[in-house]
Every structure is written in structure tokens, then in C-alpha cells.
Amino acid sequence: MVVYNFAAGPAVMPKPVIQQIQTELPSLNGSGMSIMEISHRSPAFDAIIQQAEARLRHLMAIPDDYAVLFMQGGGTGQFAAAPLNLATKHHHIAVLDSGQWASRAAAEAKRLGIAADVLATTKPDHYRHLPTMPEALAQDTYDYLHLCLNNTVEGTAYTTLPEHGDTPLVADMSSNICAQRYNVSDFGMIFAGAQKNLGPAGVTVVIVKRALLSDVEAVPSALDYTLFDKKNSLYNTPPVFAIYALNLTLGWIEDLGGIDAMEKRNREKSSKLYAFLDRSKLFHNYVEPRDRSLTNVVFNTGDADLDQAVVDAAAAQGLMNLKGHRSVGGLRASLYNAMPLAGVDALIDFLTQFEKEHEYYVQR
Ligand SMILES: *Cc1c(COP(=O)(O)O)cnc(C)c1O
User: Fold this and answer.
1) Cys bridge to 177: 192, 291, 329, 356, which one at CB 3.0-4.6 A?
2) CATH number of the domain located at residue range(s) 257-363 in this protein
3) Handedness of CA 319, 324, 330, 333 (dihedral sign)
């Protein structure tokens, strides 16, 4: 049975990458040692981490005045690292509350004693569209404005950025990094855990404008951007295997034509699924069409038991992990870079068939 994994994260990785890992795992470059066994200060790993950085810089067109860091602690770690490193002047950040991950970022800043103003929220509308800034952002008030560019749980994504004047933007790109094109110089800082589009869990990418960095003493070393920049992400032991796999994944993205090619594929996949959902009488996506995510498509039947029946019947046919996030329920198909169009076609065929067999529900 062909299996398609629609999990939100950790998520599907490219087959050729998994195969290359399998081939190389016992002995990296004929060394007789596994990538999991070698020193992070060895020439072999140095070549890997440098290639990973060079590939990411090239793919995302990252300007030279931005540092690229490989850290640990996931997106959640960055909810703390960003305010600790960057909220050093006003000790005050602004947040647009577009969903669960944005509100967690605000909560984590507050936990660290940094004020976080939620300027707008679409929570009362179940986050079915993105919040818009109520008025012009107050200047010289906030160290940055936090945005979650792709709301993994709620299935929305920013294509145009809110007006933010001179206040830097900090972007959580955890679930759409390298899946669609953004202009890095529009942001002060970008972060993403690898486990959605860039490989296995364990490494977190941070892209930060060096001009925003200062020597801040109160930052734990493991979260210190300035220190990581100085030490080329090798201050302490980095997640060697995860960086190796991330590098292979970036190589795969390059081979397929880079981010623009990824975005084209992701648009094709998601439009096909949204078009099906818009036609369907049983399955519905309630997200405002212009705010729809390319990578996380949420939908439901309106009946929790029936949603669960869909998840189970799909899994029996190799369409795995379609359950929506536990906080919202329903169904979710994550269509990250490594999900082929054939997976989306198989999903649509399955949903069409399921709908035919459940006409009773449609007619209610
Ligand atoms: C998954 C995710 C996170 C959390 O990532 P962890 O690595 O589990 O901490 C944060 N933000 C977004 C948008 C996510 O999709």
C-alpha cells in the first residue's frame, strides 16, 4: 500500500532524502563512522553545516547582513529567544493574534517579564481570517511586531504583510519556510523549527538582521543570537544529525528548482484540494479564501464522530494523520514540500468516495 503522510509535524520528508540517509547512515563518505558518531568540530561536519547555510542563503536570497543560525529548542524556544535577544530597548513587543502559535508567543514573552500587546485578534471568529492592524502601529514603542506567517492549526497564511513602519517584524515561519516566497529583508528576524518543511525535528533555523543584535547579558547562552553568530552555531554541540538531514532536504529543494518551484507545486496541490472542498456538500473549509494556507488545509464535516470516521477510513487506505489539531478538531491535510501531487489526488479520490457513501449526512 502506498502511504501518504499528511501530519502537521513532524511531517513527511522527501523520499530521496530518506534513501540517501539510509545509504549513508553506517558510514559517512566512506569514513566508517556514522553522521551520528562524528564530532561537530570535524572537517566532515564543518562541510555539512557550511553547505546548509550556503544553500539556505541562496534559496531564500538572504542578504549578507543577516546571520543564519542553527539552534535547538524548536519554535517554542524562539518564543523565548526572540524577546530575550531583541526586546532590549522598550522591553515591549506587539503581536497580531492570528492563532494558537501567535498567542503562545505573546504568552511566553509575558512569562519572561516582557510586555506583549495583542494589537488585534481574530479569536472570536475562530481565527478563520487574519487579523488586520486596527490603526497605524505606534512608532518607537515596540521592539518588534510578532507575526505567525502560516497558522498551522487554523490553516491561514499571510501573503501581504501588515504596515509596520520602522518597527521590525519577527516572523514565525515554522510551517511554511521554503514553501512559499517571502522577501527576507522585510523582516528583522525569521525562525522555523525544521520538522515541517526542512527535515526531522531537532534543529531550529534563525535568520536575524545583525543590526538588531547587541550583547545582552541576561540571555542564556543556548539562546544567545550574538554568541551563536560569533561561533557559527558551534558554541555547544549542535544537533548534528538534524543539520545533516536539513542540508540534504535543502539540496532536494534546489534540485527541484528552489522556493519558487516549491510554491508553484504547493499552490497547485492546495488549490486542487480547496476547489474540491468548495464543491463538496459534506466537507467544508471555512477559512476566508484570500487567507488560505498553502501548506495546512483544514476542513470538517460539522460532525465530530463523522470526522473521526474519515480519519480512520483514510488511514485504512494509507492516507495517514488527517486528524485536525486537538484544540480545533475536524480534519487537516498538511501539504508540505515533500507531499507529492499524487498524495493530494489520492486524498481527493478518497474524500469523493466517502462523500458518496455518506449521502445521508449531506441531506440532513
Ligand atoms: C509547530 C509550530 C511551532 C512550534 O514548534 P516546536 O518546534 O514544537 O516548538 C511554532 N509555530 C508554528 C507556526 C508551528 O507550526
Assistant:
1) 192
2) 3.90.1150.10
3) negative
